[in-house]
From TrEMBL:
Entry keywords, A to Z: Hydrolase, Metalloprotease, Protease, Signal, Zinc
Signal peptide: 1-27
Record organism: Novosphingobium aquiterrae
Classification via InterPro entries: Metalloenz_LuxS/M16, Pept_M16_N, Peptidase_M16, Peptidase_M16_C
Gene3D superfamilies xrefs: Metalloenzyme, LuxS/M16 peptidase-like
Family according to the record: Belongs to the peptidase M16 family.
Name listed for the protein in its UniProt record: M16 family metallopeptidase
Keyword Iron: no
Amino acid sequence: MRPLFRTACSLVSLVSAALLVVQPVTAKPAPAPTAEAGSADPWLYRGSDVPRDKEWTFGELPNGLRYAVRKNGVPPGQVSIRVRIDAGSLYENDNERGFAHLLEHMVFRQSRYLADGAAIPAFQRLGATFGSDTNAETSPVSTTFKLDLPNATAASLDESFKLVSGMMIAPTLSEANVRTDVPIVLAEKRERGGLAERLADATQQTLFAGQRMAVRPVIGTTETLEAANQASVRAFHARWYRPDNAVIIAVGDADPAQLAALIEKYFGEWKAVGKLTPAPSFGDPVATAGSSAGHVGETRVVVEPDVPRGLTYAVMRPWRKVDDTIVYNQGIMVDALAQAIINRRLEARARGGGSYLVAQVNQEKVSRSADATFVSVTPLGENWKTALDDVRAVIADAMAAAPTQEEIDREVAEMNVAFESSVEQRRLQPGSRLADDIVTALDIRETVASPETVLQIFNQSRPLFTPQAVLDHTRALFQGTVTRGVYVTPKAGEGDAASLKMALAAPVKADSKARLDSKPISFAELPPIGTPGKVVTSSPTSVLEIEQVELSNGTKVLLWPTTDEPGRVTVKVRWGAGYRAFQAGDAAYIALGDTALVGSGVGTLGQEELDRISTGRKMGFDFAIEDAAFQLSANTRNADLADQLYLFAAKLSMPRWDVNPVLRAKAAAKLQYESFATSPQGVMQRDLAFLQHGRDARFRTPTPQDIDAATPDGFRKVWEPVLREGPIEVQLFGDFNRADAIAALEKTFGALPRRAPLPQALLRSSFADLAPTAQPIVLEHRGDPGQAAAVINWPTAGGIAQITEGRQLEILSQLFSNRLLDAMREKLGASYSPYVANSWPQDLDKGGAIFALAQLQPKAVPVFFATADEIAAELIAAPPSADELSRVTEPLKQQLTRAYTSSAFFMNQLEGASDDPRKFAALRSLLPDMTQTTPAAMQALAAKYLKPGNSWRVAVIPAGQKLATDLPKGMTMPGAGR
């Protein structure tokens, strides 16, 4: 069934999907050719005794097309459509590598009801945003086309099914369109290629040696893609795009009978020509002749400068289709317990200062090619053999002796809270996720189940969760046909394939030192925060039912008890000055705090104790550093709310300063740093925020030398005052009891000492803008010589006083983005994913920007700059057309309309509103600000911010190359304007 812990296992995994105003369309009569809408044996459940999810209606048309439809109101008005073709890269012949993915692009190009390039505008006019609401993905085993249609009316649904049917049944696979789309796919291959592609290929080729997975990357090869032509692409389409090889899923705010009728109307006449070609054999993992003791087969050592060390080995077994039964799923649950116990022990060793930074075991069924148990290890230094031995020793101990019942009970409690939460929150399941669950079930040839069924099977399985059963399943997880491994290192000479094979085959002594004390810790044993405070004021905010409360120590709370999201409570704690609180030399401690502050503990609780005290509880501890504030956040539930508030308050009042989390964070930061230089994307990740904040040293990514110089004592000196500084705002919203929440707040945040306000000079401070540049700032990467990236940044402004203008700039940026995509990707094929974004800080009076970014070939960098300048000039010279503007404002309107159904959206908008009440008024104007404008207003904003000489730009090019200054020979500007 749909997986929880892994990408392809079974019913246990269903929970991850579960945790998450337009009237329904008028229904038409449901088709009934050979459908089994009410049958006790719908097609997805044949051969399974798992209770079917009766909210789904399954059907099958005479031409063999299968469908699944379902009523769902999350978000209201939306219908999610998926068309899954049972063919991915593993279905390709040798001369077709990359064709499944190429076809994914081509069906969007032109089809029966859509002219060349008309698909994206057509769906935008229906309110669907390109890339999020309209998309497609190709995997090794399938190609799936996705449409999340907002504001679904009878007319828009009919039009959408019509357009999608033409794309599937009759795409225009002409020679001209092949020649147009191949460069776009090659641009995508280039963007995702280089080091990442080499490492992925090396790993896939080694672990799946002898199988199609080893030689069928989804993106294909340059040679086969360049050789693609009208005849060969049409042949692939004819072979696999046929009704008896397709499934349509439609879920949303519409009558299932209406959805089924539309499927029959537009797909019922789809004809299959000839017999369906059987899927090719994907092969089995096989131990090669001469495999060493322990069945260790293929191994490889990959040397790539600048990458962190990493070792992966896999115990490979053949994949076989299973009968997705209750007994099978009970076995998967025991497998999950076994892995959770091992992973907790491995994490304990890493936290204690072991030879590796992180290690994990994970069982997956990969693309119907193997059932494998993967072990991944990140060594802390060159001595990878010691790290591997230490990890194998923990696994050997798990295979030698059964876990204690206490260890099992701990993991069972964790699973139980996840399953119970999914039942509580079942009506929050988005239709898009439910549709994707069916796609995943089809990919792995299993079924889906309701959250109630998952919990029921889990509870019925509890007697099976014995030490002996877990031991037996642990041993089975590490038995297979062959074991294979790959070690990636930045330094030559650390090992070779033979030494890795010997290390994997060598005997290992079981290490029981990683076994943990699993006895729970009670919150009743912890000291109080202080003397409880009292609520001194309570008043409505004039926004929905949100209430503002002030405690006697000055802490302010925004409260919103609502049953709109049953079983879910969100807590946010906001305080301090964010990045403004630090000094120029604090960059290393800022980076370390982002990962180590929570792990360094609370009061008497270290990281292990924090894990134990939250066992079987729904609690969290996320931390974020923002430009103008710090924030702790967690998703919890009413039963755990008081204790969640205690942990957050204790973090501010009685922080602990354990050394090991800081040392571990230092090791991680050093390992990551050099990898930034391996690609243009990495360089942007390293340097873009630094540039966008005017080269402010606080935003600089610290070097390994900076990290080496940082100490645990220094960490405490920087962070201890930060936790004490500035008033506190608590946000509390969701399914909770108000009286109980108030009592818990008084005992926790109300018991803190009164905190002094932040200095006015600090509150008024902001970050500088980078000065405009006539020539690009040139940065270098050490990755693939065919990769580059470019950015243009137009500074704007910020602040709540001008928030309407900031929101209108979102419309302008999306107009710009549509034009840039059309020019750079569709007309030139020079970049796969150019885009334009808008940022506008509400808590600072400057720092906003419109910025355009593209990943491309080095020779195309001047094309990007010239194209962006041309688009900016055209937006200044002439207003956009009404149609072009509506293609932006209608999707924005639909995005916001859907967002308004979530309490989290409103609370995100109101962060900091207890100190700045203008945010309440700003929330009321959000929808018109973002969706109502005029062509003249857009032209005026473009003239204000996109004028020549008002931008700075960056080019990231390969080391050793010079930045091109002229357009490539033969390349002319595309005429991007409208």
